[in-house]
Amino acid sequence: MGSPIKENGLNAKKKYILALDQGTTSSRAILFDTLGNMVRSAQKEFKQIYPRSGWVEHDPEEILSSQLEVMKTVSSGCENEIISVGIANQRESVVVWDKTSGKSIYNAIVWQCRRTADECKRLADEGYEDLIYERTGLTLDAYFSATKLGWILENVSGAKERAKNGELLFGTVDSFLIWHLTGGRVHATDYTNAARTMLFNIHTLDWDEDLVKIFDVPKSMLPRVQPSASDFGTVCAGMPCAGIEISAAAGDQQAALAGHKCFEKGSVKNTYGTGCFLLMNTGSEPVVSKRGLITTLAASGADRPDYVLEGSVFAAGAVVQWLRDEMGIISSSAESETVAKSVNDSGGVYIVPAFTGLGAPYWDASARGTVTGLSRGVTRAHFVRAALESIAYRVFDVVHAMERDLGEKVKRISADGGAAKNNFLMSFQADILSREIIRPAFTEATALGVMYLCALSRGLCDMKTLASAPAECEIFRPHMTSEKRDALLEGWKAAVMRARMK
Ligand code: ADP
Question: What does the pLDDT read at residue 502?
Fold first, then answer.
């Protein structure tokens, strides 16, 4: 008799997998058994460095030390039973380090950092936008790694020269961790992280010769690129988990996509955090977006990974924070649910949360937050309800754009993140999309994705078994009539138009 295949599709053995989740504000380590149950976890926050307005940095040595500390806490006493370590990481953030000493030559420039916005504008003026989109699937923006790397090479004394001499290495945070964990033996990254650098060709699956020249990056600095679920080397002696294989690495959003088992074309995951991150698996063909969505790569063990369409909403849970912290009309985020449910509708009020402009599919940086439909009878409850509804409308906008780009209806939408705890929001989202929303009982989708990728990498399960295995979840079904939905969406469209009026 073979080993039993348990509920979650993993082959049952009494061993553990350690998922590292190196995020923007903290480093975490989560230990799973091979049935997919979380056994232990630890988290350590680290410093956010803001040298100037709009600039964001992290100390790479602190990223490393915090990650090692939580690894140690979680693995102590059971190191011998851990099969694999896997990594999910904050995407796009850039580290450059000395090949001999391992010391970074500058702080990590974080994905949020806007310091290279002018440089991106210059490149756009020189006409590079289309080329960059064709090769990388990305919009020319300071968010991605290439111009951040360029900034370090230009502004750190001697960096350019040393990079040309082969003395320096570049990596996203996964590469930096892998290099240190393997004692400098492995300089590698995975497809999902490489795809965010704006130097990687998502069609040939290799560093793009032209882009490497345009951004003037010595090729010797670049890591080797391999599938997300594959062998990244062995943790070296002296480190926590020494001798254990690093079996997976992926950008955090793509790890979450795997954690939601979005392995099928047309399946979407949406993380409702401060902002929303929506990723849709589009299968083996890249989908060109006409609506400003990003085309990127999914995490898998395959030599040719699936493609992904990605869109984000800048202000999602942030609207709830605004009600709580600036407006003071609710005392906790959770209270928004009871208050919203105390009325039957928003009383005709729409809030467009364009605090910093509107992203996909509008891309209007000059739009600003707007409230429409106020009448004398509007209460605090209507206002709170309108704020939660605004999150669902913005998600509708992005899902609708994805469907039009794909030319098909989305098949499945899974939700996670802080604001996905809100039952009212989930129900209204189902209504407004006229689609079921699935909310898994286990909310750590990113870490679970890393665990799945490690299991795939080690042959503990295959993709098909994993995809079809049931997972405990709640399903929010649509109940609204199409007439009502159409009327609400008309109102939303009108409100967005007002938010965009100059
Ligand atoms: P991030 O990773 O972006 O910090 P989280 O996934 O931790 O985000 O989610 C935090 C966000 O979720 C906050 O903006 C908070 O206001 C919102 N949030 C948390 N709980 C609720 C709730 N019950 N209802 C609505 N919003 C919530």
Answer: 65
pLDDT of residue 469: 74
CA 400, 401, 404, 405 dihedral sign is: negative
Mutate to test the pocket of ligand 1, among 90, 333, 335, 384 (most ligand atoms within 8 A of CB): 333
pTM for this entry: 0.91
Cβ of 418 less than 6 Å from ligand 1: yes
Q: What is the mean pLDDT of each run of 10 residues along the chain (502 residues)?
A: 42 76 93 88 92 91 97 92 95 96 96 90 94 94 94 96 97 98 98 98 97 96 97 96 96 95 94 93 93 94 92 91 94 97 97 89 88 96 98 97 93 92 97 96 92 92 77 93 97 96 72
Residue 274 Cβ < 6 Å to ligand 1: yes
User: What's the pLDDT at 7?
Assistant: 45
Q: What is the 3-state secondary structure (H, E, C) of 207-263?
A: ECHHHHHHCCCCHHHCCEEECCCCCCCECCCCCCCCCCEEEEEEEHHHHHHHHCCCC
- Cβ atoms of residues 133 and 139 within 8 Å: yes
Q: Quick one: which of 362, 439, 356, 364 has its CA closest to 393?
A: 362
Mutating to test ligand 1, I would choose from 253, 320, 385, 446 the residue with most ligand atoms within 8 A of its C-beta, which is 320
User: Which DSSP letter does residue 286 get?
Assistant: P
Q: Is the CB of 174 under 6 A from ligand 1?
A: no
Which of 87, 142, 424, 416 has its CA nearest to residue 279?
416
Residue 421 CA, closest ligand 1 atom number: 23
Backbone angles phi, psi at 118, to 5 degrees: -65, -40
From the CA of 416, give the closest atom in ligand 1.
6
The residue behind tokens 């590698």 is 188
Contact 168/157 with Cβ under 8 angstroms? Answer: no
Q: Are 299 and 228 in contact (CB under 8 A)?
A: yes
The pairs formed by 482-486 with CB atoms below 8 angstroms and a separation of 24 or more are 482/434, 485/431, 485/432, 485/434
Spatial neighbors of 41 by CB under 8 A, at least 6 apart, are 28, 29, 30, 31, 74, 447
Instruction: Count Cβ atoms below 10 Å from residue 237 Cβ, excluding itself.
Output: 8
